[in-house]
Design brief:
The structure holds 2 protein chains of 2 kinds.
Chain A lengths: L8 E5 L3 H9 L4 E5 L14 H13 L3 E6 L5 H4 L2 H10 L4 E4 L2 H10 L3 E4 L8 H10 L3 E3 L6 H11 L2 E8 L11 H6 L16 E4 L7 E3 L6 E3 L4 H6 L4 E4 L6 H21 L6 H10 L6 E2 L24 E11 L3 E6 L8 E5 L6 E4 L3 E3 L4 E2 L7 E4 L10 E5 L3
Parallel strand pairs in A: 1-2, 1-11, 2-3, 3-4, 4-5, 5-6, 6-7, 7-11, 10-12
Antiparallel strand pairs in A: 7-10, 8-9, 13-14, 13-20, 14-19, 15-16, 15-20, 17-18, 17-19
Helix pairs in contact in A: 1-2, 1-10, 4-5, 6-7, 10-11
Chain B lengths: L1 E4 L4 H9 L4 E4 L12 H13 L3 E6 L5 H14 L5 E4 L2 H10 L4 E4 L7 H10 L4 E5 L6 H10 L4 E14 L18 E7 L5 E8 L2 E11 L4 H7 L3 E4 L8 H9 L3 H10 L4 E2 L12 H4 L11 E9 L3 E6 L5 E2 L2 E6 L5 E5 L3 E2 L8 E2 L4 E5 L9 E7 L1
Parallel strand pairs in B: 1-11, 2-3, 3-4, 4-5, 5-6, 6-7, 7-11, 10-12
Antiparallel strand pairs in B: 7-10, 8-9, 9-10, 13-14, 13-21, 14-20, 15-19, 16-17, 16-21, 18-20
The chains are: A alpha/beta, B alpha/beta.
Amino acid sequence: MSSLIKIPEVLAPAGSLDKLKVAILYGANAVYVGGQKFGLRTAAENFTLDELREGMVFAHERDAKVYVVLNSFLHDKDLLELPDFVRYLEEIGTDAVIVSDLGVVNTVRKHSQISIHISTQASTLNTQSALLWKKAGASRIVLGREVSVKEAGKIKRAADIEIEMFIHGSMCMAYSGHCVISNFTQGRDSNRGGCAHSCRFEYSLEGLDTLEKKKAFFMSSKDLEGLRVLPHFIEEGIDSLKIEGRMKSHLYAGTMSKVYSEALKFYADNGHFLSDDLTKWESELGKVSHRTYTQASLVEKASFNSIFNERENSLEGEWQMVGSVIDASPKSGIVIEVRNAFNQGDELEIIPFSGDVIKVQARQIMDLTMKALTRTKPTTLVRLPYVSGVKGSFLIRQKVKT
Amino acid sequence: MKLTTYAKNLHELNILKDQGFTEVILEPKSLARFGKLSHDEFIKLSGRAQELGLRVLLEWDILMTEDVFIIKLDAIKELIPFVNAVRVQDPGAFNWILENTDKPLQFIAENGNHNLNALEGWIDLSHGRMERVILSIELSKTTIQEYVQKLTIPCELLGLGRILLFYTPRPLLSALIPDKISINEEFAAIGESEESPHKGFPIVENQHGTFMFHIKQFCLIEYAQELREMGLCHLRIDQRWEESCLTEISCLMLKFETARFEAFKQRYHQDLMRGFYLVNKTDVLFPKLKNSRLQKREGDYVGEVLEVEKGSHLAIMVKNPRGLSGRDCIKILHPKGEVFESKIYSLKNLDLEEVNHVPAGNVALVQFVGGVWVKSQVFYLTIV
């Protein structure tokens, strides 16, 4: 069955080298990463030059691709440093760069042969726009999140170009690249990585004839979740499904990569999604902190019900990451880097790269020097007794105690 | 330098004629973000404008998903015979005009396009059909001057008008009105953010989406002479939301007097600002946005401290392919910037075995170093 169906790639966010490894180990076919400059996540950890090289090797050894974001709206002075970086990216085998500015497109083309993907930041929304970017040298378009999957299929067929669409994550309410609130109110260029997330603030609104003064988070969007839309993506021949979130956690990168790659593999093997696992996959997506989910414009135009009219601090999920496995062997046990404290006796879920979670109870906890503990502390390393099947880099979570 | 502006009725056209304008921007409701004109009104007004000797520019500045684009083609095909040039922002509209008409193109490059290379790229893509580029108001005057001098086509800049901050196709205001009448109705509101001292953001929702503007309007009238000397060809006056004061502006443009301008500012219904005209420093805060722990150095990075056990050990995740050896000297950078240097004299692996070398991807336990915190970064100092 799988040879007959073209399955889109799962493209995961990797805000750091560790997250790149997590995303790929958990099934992502490709990751997108940022260097220390030129991207839109100034505050993210991002990659040094050495880490980019190492990430490239790690990914390519596992048949995964690495795309590097250069999707800021660069000013002239920013462009001066770009040629050296582009040549370096080509030298280390970068699979593509993600670009939103025509000046950057031209610079990349002048100094390398790297494939160019047009970022969603360019708000490419229609066939004619895709054709223009194709003339400019693009090989793939990351469509604006306002485009439905059906429209995307039309664009792909008419423009004959690779199409990438967002399937999951936070969303700009504005057309991407068309919001400058931060620029003019906070002096931070949102389109060069300084977005202050002003759209998530509460606003008092007045003046509408039919509206009394009202407070609302009226510009805040719910989060995109497209699991049940997967069949449409496949039917329309979409090439790549992108997960937003380079600033998000290891647990997020791992969970999203795992769920979407397992769901697509099921489809490739069976030709449908009529799986008992569908509810399991949805449950997994729900275990990562998120705003209320919406399909936004994937099927129908996003409307009133896509607004997340709530304060951001209500985002804590029911599950939290307690840590990740640093090492696992019968001799050293399961060594965990603790992110959130857990106690002796707690039920933990260890998430394998594929398949069902491994449930363990923390009956015995020791520190690195083999001293017994009754509770752990964040930013420490602890040992649990070895459990067969557990490997390094597995993530561990726990239901939040109420 | 010529003034350009919008008109939506015969009265406004006549004012333009009287003030010596040579062109007018007309906005059909179907194609322009803030258009008010039906197609019949547009065609009638276009005809009258041309009789008055005004060049007619059609504003097609909405952004369009594929299905909307297809629908809008009927509108543009109907109106295009009645205009002299078309102003577009969506690259799809740009391409369609190039491929399907012989009309000159004016490209609204107000979002991004903050480098000369990009602007020259758009001009190249137009194959000689672009007659004007509308520059971003985020450019500083030195940049504007450079672009005006180096670009091969005339440039336009906003001289007075609202600053658009935000554009979404989603209906955000009507969502708050329980018994809204029609989805295509236009709504307006004033917004006040909880997180900033700014109060009074004008917000508009119409059939094309929701738009939010800055509390102040953009104004470069006092720099008109400077812009003229730079060689800027077109300065746009945008008074679509207020009583027109074109006569007064024209007089100020002809002969600028500070006192008259100050009086104009006092009378103007909104505060005015020059934005980034003098300087754009919207990237200077970036280094402060990043946790100093995450500001890495290239080259000699060993890894990160995962655990500090006082009096016992530091656990370091070794990330450098060289690994960590018992003979290495290391420099440890505290998250707050303090630096510690130490020679390694105790090196163990996770099985607590004394070893000479811990390879990359593994945890190394070295002797405790006072003052070091978790998340400190470790670098090679020297290899003895």
